[in-house]
Amino acid sequence: MRRFAIVGHRAMSQGKLPLNDMAGGAGRMDVLVRALMAGLLTSHGIRHDTEVVLHLMGGPGPSRRIKFVGSQLKGVHAEERAVAGQIAKVLKLPTPARGHWVERSSGIFDSGGDINHTLSEWKDVVKVCLDASAPRLWNADELIPTESNALSTFEGEHGNFTISGIDIGFILSDDKPMPDEFQIENTLIRSLGDEWLQGHMAIAVCHFLLDQGISLNLSQS
Prior knowledge:
The protein has a single domain (2-212), classed as 3-Layer(aba) Sandwich (Alpha/beta knot), CATH 3.40.1280.10. The protein is built from 4 helices and 12 strands. It has helices spanning 29-40, 80-91, 115-121, 199-212, and strands at residues 2-8, 41-42, 45-46, 50-56, 64-69, 102-105, 108-112, 126-130, 152-157, 160-165, 168-173, 188-190.
């Protein structure tokens, strides 16, 4: 399974989402929408071995999480406004209790809580926080293979997928540093290079590495 946790410090967590002002009035919800699309969508479909959790911390009210599960999703189209519309439907509803997931539509779940709640739910997952100043995510001298050998795959039909391979979760923030309460224990800090990439670009690189089967630097030492 491939997991992505996206932290939106200013992203609104409840109310009427202004679809015509996602970069301003919605608290840079545009950044989260692009990250969500990069995580879940391919050119002609959905990555069924992937889930994305958006962390909306901008209020009003308590922080909120919206989880998109690729193996269960229906009716999500590759267009930013349409994806934002799915989020808007959730924001109109009361925020559930922290740690309690409510399914709002096929493959879209809603819960209160913050990034630490998500990390506590990723019990047996290799957790990687992306940081440009950290060691590289891939092993030294690793070459791009001439044939793809994906590190995670899926088989089956909608509602009955079998997902195999690595279980890894990537943690990304928006243009602000991770919140002070972020618990870094049991989390690897890795980079995709010296340049700070935009979130959706970083997610695309992570997918590329996993799709090609490039050996990753996941040692705790």
